[in-house]
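[step 3/7] inverse_fold.run input=structure_tokens len=126
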């Protein structure tokens, strides 16, 4: 091959390349290097995530927020405890205004009136 990359001649069917006796060793080293890079990358991200988690915890403590998993676990435990020995769902899970109410019932109109401005309430009462 006169011009171009040195292995163009080999690609054209010229001198056959000798199989590299160290090829297996080089491949193993390459795989090891890749594995090590992956390990370092994972360590780096694990460290970054740990730092973030520390910051998140600080914010949670400052504002009294519970971790999502903890809050869900507590809610689940409360539901299970409330429904223990009962075949129906716990009464607390029935939204106000649905199902059977023991409290004094409030008409929809009364509820709506609460949220209206004064002059509008007077108009509707007449």
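[step 3/7] decode complete -> sequence:
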């Amino acid at each position: 091959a006169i011009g171009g990359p040195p292995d163009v001649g080999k690609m054209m069917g010229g001198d056959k390349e000798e199989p590299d006796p160290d090829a297996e060793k080089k491949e193993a080293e390459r795989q090891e290097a890749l594995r090590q890079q992956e390990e370092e990358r994972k360590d780096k991200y694990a460290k970054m995530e740990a730092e973030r988690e520390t910051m998140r915890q600080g914010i949670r403590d400052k504002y009294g927020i519970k971790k999502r998993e903890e809050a869900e676990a507590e809610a689940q435990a409360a539901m299970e405890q409330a429904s223990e020995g009962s075949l129906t769902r716990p009464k607390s899970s029935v939204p106000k205004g649905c199902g059977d109410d023991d409290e004094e019932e409030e008409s929809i109109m009364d509820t709506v009136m609460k949220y209206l401005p004064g002059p509008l309430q007077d108009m509707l009462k007449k």
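[step 4/7] annotate
The two ends are 104 Å apart (CA to CA).
The chain has five helices and no strands.
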